[in-house]
């Protein structure tokens, strides 16, 4: 009998074996949201190095204010760069609190202001509500840069999973509206293409945390229609955009056992072809959300280190880097 090869990274094999294969449906969504209520602490995290504050900022026209959770290093003097962070959750679940640890780390390690947006969720609030909430938060960062003590020319956007999809869509929306210009987009295993739901060639055996059934439910909820159709609204599905030129430089990371692996790499190649620099990190044997589920694993720490370094390069460019890039 021939030995079988484990498809997962050695650091992730135990977690992959223990993770249940759950497809998100309306009943499952209700349970997940109920349990998520206990994640929102009555008090902000206590961190001697970082001040955490919840603020309400003006929402889109005719919509309620948007809650933004800010993380500010206490020791930093003078204006700093900033990151608008967008949490994941398949467009249907999630809140800024789930990424407290990550946002605290980024603020502390990079010495930047991190602002995590609490956007409205589908299916109750389908497109464009979540994206418009993110845009409202981004506009607030730019308009209040002086008061917040941040550098408007050094504001990046980033997110994971559906948050990565919203990040990519936000970069496109900001480009088209020509009102605010983020300097960089951080795409952590982003949810970019509803057409993946129609693929019949995908073997989901090695997928964890987010499978094809959940993907269909998430996209259907967000779009308010069956995903994978001939047409979708502009800015609803980042991968559907034909012209990607003029967008901010990007970093994209994904694992080989992630449902989004193929769509992510296609998008990265299209960015490069359009003249948009895009650094790509592919983690062999990593499943969706591995850096959160197995936070202490070496492969997870290395992955976070890679995108933290990318943020540092984008927000703290070396002297003459811009001129060298233009010359190259």
TrEMBL record:
One of its GO terms (molecular function) is hydrolase activity. InterPro entries: AB_hydrolase_3 (IPR013094), AB_hydrolase_fold (IPR029058), GDXG_lipolytic_enzyme (IPR050300). Residues 83-290 form the Alpha/beta hydrolase fold-3 domain. The keyword DNA-binding does not apply. It holds the Pfam family Abhydrolase_3. Coiled coil: none annotated. Keywords: Hydrolase. Transmembrane segments: none annotated. This is Esterase LipW. Gene3D superfamilies: alpha/beta hydrolase (3.40.50.1820).
